[in-house]
Amino acid sequence: MTYKITLIGAGSANFGLGTLGDFLKSKVLSGSTIALHDINEESLQKVAKIGERYIQEQRLPYTLQATTNLPEALEGADFCIISIEVGNRFELWEQDWKIPLQFGIRQVYGENGGPGGLFHALRIIPPILNICEQISQICPQAYVFNFSNPMSRICTTVKRKYPQLRFIGLCHEVASLPKHLPRILNTPLSNLKFRAGGLNHFSVLTSITYRDTGKDAYPDVLSKAPAYFESLAETYEWANIEPNSPLRQSIQQRAVWVERQLFKVILEVFGCLPITTDSHFGEYIPWAYEVVDQRGILDFFRVYQHWCAQQFNPQRIQGTNEDWMILPIIEGIITDAGYEEAAVNLLNDGFIENLPHDIAVEVPAIIDKNGVHGIPLGKLPKGIGGLLNNQYAVHDLTAEAVLQQSKHLALQALCVDPLVNTLRGAQKALETIIDYQKPYLGYLK
Questions:
Q1: Mind telling me the catalytic residues?
Q2: Can you give the pLDDT at residue 253?
Q3: What is the distance, to the nearest Å, from the Cα of residue 153 to the centroid of all Cα atoms in its chain?
Q4: Of 312, 315, 318, which is closest to residue 58 (Cα–Cα)?
Q5: Is 306 among the domain residues?
Q6: What is the CATH number of the domain that holds 94?
Q7: Which end of the chain is more exposed for a tag (fewer CB within 10 A), N or C?
């Protein structure tokens, strides 16, 4: 049996080339059609040409389509993968981050949590809802996987508008655990059984045991993790920064606990290991601003810009993009694998008992022929549960602000955010961001 997989946002070299390259290596998907879609025809055609050439050179049993017409790309699709951004990504991102700071709102970053996360959500959720509306009309049976941020707010809103859609959020952040845990505990990954959960970019390790003894490994994690992270010699080895560049030298000089000062506090005060670094985890916590390594976060932002600029490399189609996690999930559904995926984002259905049911949570899942099934984690520790519950009203009002196209509800979403302690600042930040981003936020009335 053959399938059709549609990549929405395929003009992105990071997402498009890497994901396409993964699919083309799959034996399970052999004979399938991969439809590439993007609103940027020039970028789309670049990816399509590289893909077509690779298929021909390797004599691969795949059919490739490329179109800027979304209904055409969706026709007959079994799986849809969304990875989009709106406008000039880094220019708008910096506005999300810096404008609230100008009005006295202390946020450490501006992508997923805090006012910046709200502005990002208000900008990107409408086009994703438009995509989902067309999916529900053209290929309603399809599985829809979202990689766009802010993940939790997107998933919460989409499931509120389209509850029957098979919509799953995926994020590669959980990949930090297989990387670090074996080194922390000095044991092979195969000897560790662990789970994590919470909200996307606001998740913690919830349990970990040694397979050979059945012993709880969490006490060892808490005792050994600080020394391990203190000893890390290279923070951004994945960025391929030129060895003699000022950026590389600047970061190497500051490689001790860079971007993990808040991380360290969460370990000590809450007794939990975060699965991500301060720039993400700190977006949700009001006192994070005085704890995090601000310079480390600025360095990360610079490195990420640099990394993204390096991504359009035709050779990426020959490599692997396993952090996206999408190929194993699709193959798992097709083959009825029954395997456990480390992290998916689903509407809470009792998976985390001390969080409301109508917010998207990040939990592990079983993948089989019937789809993606979240695994219940019970109750999270009270302290972590309290931090997560502080986000519920923010997510709820973000979704309603988008669905009702309401500036008034957007202001309420700001005013209930734990990071916001100034009404006038919230009002001015919202008015300013709407003015600066009018092409994307002008729908708010």
A1: 172
A2: 54
A3: 11
A4: 318
A5: yes
A6: 3.90.1820.10
A7: N
Would you say 387 and 355 are in contact if contact means Cβ atoms under 8 Å apart?
Answer: no
Rounded CA-CA distance 198/180 in Å is 19
223 pLDDT band (50/70/90 cuts)? Answer: very high
Could you tell me what percent of the chain has a pLDDT over 70?
92
Chain CA centroid to CA 64, Å: 27
Answer yes or no: is 30 within a domain: no
249 lies in which domain range? 78-445
Q: Are 77 and 6 in contact (CB under 8 A)?
A: yes
Supply 304's token pair: 């990420």
Q: What is the model's pLDDT at position 311? A: 62
* Site of tokens 């505990």: 185
Tokens standing for residue 358: 């109508």
Distance CA 221, CA 329 (A): 29
Q: β-strand 79-82 against 4-8: which pairing, if any? A: parallel
| Predicted local distance difference test score (pLDDT) of residue 323 | 47
Nearest CA-CA partner of 437 in 98, 112, 201: 98
pLDDT reported for residue 230: 81
Helix axis angle, 218-230 to 176-185, nearest 10°: 100
Q: How many angstroms separate the CA atoms of 301 and 151, rounded? A: 19
Which tokens hold the place of 141? 């049976």
Strand partners, 210: 192
Of 275, 279, 273, 276, nearest to 304 by C-alpha is 279
CA angle at residue 442 from 132 to 422, to 5 degrees? 105
Min mean pLDDT across 85-94, 120-129, 376-385 is at 85-94
What pLDDT is stored for residue 361 in this prediction? 98
**Residue 64 covered by a domain:** no
Q: Which helix (DSSP H) or strand (DSSP E) does residue 206 occupy? A: strand 202-210
Average pLDDT, the chain: 92
Question: Coil, helix or strand for 233?
Answer: coil
Would residue 57 count as lying in a domain?
no
Nearest to 193 by CA among 209, 177, 212: 209
User: Three-state DSSP class for 390?
Assistant: coil
Listed in sequence order, the residues at least 6 apart from 349 whose beta carbon sits closer than 8 Å to its beta carbon are: 357, 374
Count of the separate structural domains present in the chain: 1
Collect all residues with Cβ–Cβ distance below 8 Å to 175 and sequence separation of at least 6.
Answer: 323
Distance CA 271, CA 183 (A): 19
